[in-house]
Fold each of these.
Amino acid sequence: MYAQMIKSEATQDDPEKLAAFQARIDRGEKIEPKDWMPEGYRKTLIRQIGQHAHSEIVGQLPEGNWITRAPSLERKVNLLAKVQDEAGHGLYLYCAAETLGVSRDALTEMLLDGRMKYSSIFNYPTLTWADMGAVGWLVDGAAIMNQVPLQRTSYGPYARAMVRICKEESFHQRQGYHLLLKMMAGTDDQKRMCQDALNRFWYPALMMFGPSDKDSVHSAQSMAWKIKMNTNDELRQKFVDETVPQAEYLGLTVPDDGLVWNDARGHYDFTQPDWSEFYNVLQGNGPCNAERMAARRKAWDDGAWVRDAMLAHGQKKAARRKAAE
Ligand code: BYC
């Protein structure tokens, strides 16, 4: 329905303006907030940037779960810093979305009433300390794979937000990998925990890239507008190709009997995720959907007094300024 709405709005735009806009995109120019843009472009960006921002915020929950139980002060500090970084990423992205004329409050309300999504990956639980390694290595690893090309995305504020986010995500990925390296040099129980974490996070990480290209609703238009720089399947393949040797180095086995290097293609062949599970999670039926949404709703409700106070303060200041004029 959203795709249909975007299409009909895009076609309502003046064809000459649309052609000039597309020519700017094709020349590799950045589109800035005050530039003319088709309504569909604006709405697609709000959807993608908003979903991305919500993912960063909700993404704090599975890791926040382990801050009090980190096994050393150094690990606790690392994890705390990572979770704080995710909050920062959410804020840059909400700011980027605001330049398109939608407030952060409106985006949050859309998340809470189910009109917007966050990444499927955060609907899976983090059961052991090894999961902190798997999340950093695989989840942040998949995020980097997706986000590095987005530094070249056509919308200026989004592209610039991505530069800093990608730098921080690289640190996150490395701390996850380092954590697993250490655990894999430990006891048999620690090694088993690492393998179990990989077993549970492998396919959810592959799902982060979205449905296969044939089922992707938005890819074609988003790529024409350079909102997306690669298809979902291209990025998923790149992730598999880069991650499998890392798993081998760790001494872990990727949980896929169909995984094999294909010399002719120059890529790994691999078994696709169970897409019925993906759509089920998107519909709200993943293991942690209800818990994540309840946490977001509580944070929103608990923050109501702050929003009210800020509004009252702003109104008072405006009234004082008016009286002094
Ligand atoms: N989860 O037409 P498609 C992170 C939806 S977190 C949920 O291919 P598109 C991090 C999609 O929205 C990573 N929904 O869509 C944070 C669409 O539904 P709607 C977040 C998904 O947009 C903390 C439908 O499926 N990164 O970095 O062209 C700690 C059809 O899909 C998912 C971003 O958001 C999913 N995985 O492509 C650690 C990156 N996949 O909206 C790490 C920016 C698809 O029509 N986003 N859907 O109802 C993107 O690059 C693209 O939006 C996607 C999807 C590749 C995710």
Amino acid sequence: MNSFILVISGPSGAGKSTLLKKLFEEFEAELYFSVSSTTRLPRENEKHGIHYYFISNDEFQEDIKNNYFLEWAKVHENFYGTSLKHTEKALNSGKIVILDIDVQGYKIAKKKLQDKIVSIFITTKNKEELKKRLIKRNTDTITQLEKRLENASDEMKELCEYDYLIINDELERSYEALRAILVAHRLKTKGQDLDQIQNIWNKGE
Ligand code: ADP
Ligand code: 5GP
């Protein structure tokens, strides 16, 4: 099985979660969503262990000390991190691991696991549209919203670090693009057990 890590980054509000939800509806059996730890407070609809592990600052610092994280970063005043153990376990079981992480975290993960990572940057067609979506989502205070928009401009400067770019304008088209990337990478020869495939082919099983 061709297991790899699919990193999804992009400004908050661009539509990453919406697109990932669709991907999971179609490919659930093959995917593993890495639930991050964060020191941010849960939003109204968010559940511990499903959207994030919501932990205290002290717990987060303790996890850093214990090398619990594959990567971690401070984003919009809060800490976020990806479990190394969970990621490795999912990769070993042949899953495609989905990481919804920021640019700083992506750079760290890429240094550690370069040949396992495929990366996609998802954004809106312009800043105005991002603002509209954040307002519509209605999960941030005005100060948080401004912080997220400011951060988005910085993140846009890092586009060149990514393998693929999706401008999430029309949702169905963006989903087709995301799906195409996943399907193509699953078919790559690198990462597949070619000896086994050849053996099976020769035996005619
Ligand atoms: P992210 O996970 O990147 O922070 P979300 O998936 O929460 O973003 O999307 C932010 C808001 O934008 C949500 O209200 C979502 O319904 C909406 N949205 C997502 N994709 C589109 C799209 N292509 N066109 C219009 N609205 C969208
Ligand atoms: P939100 O607070 O909107 O859920 O997420 C804010 C930002 O943190 C998003 O850009 C998201 O991709 C990023 N993020 C979520 N989990 C992680 C993680 O484990 N590591 C890093 N580096 N960023 C994360």
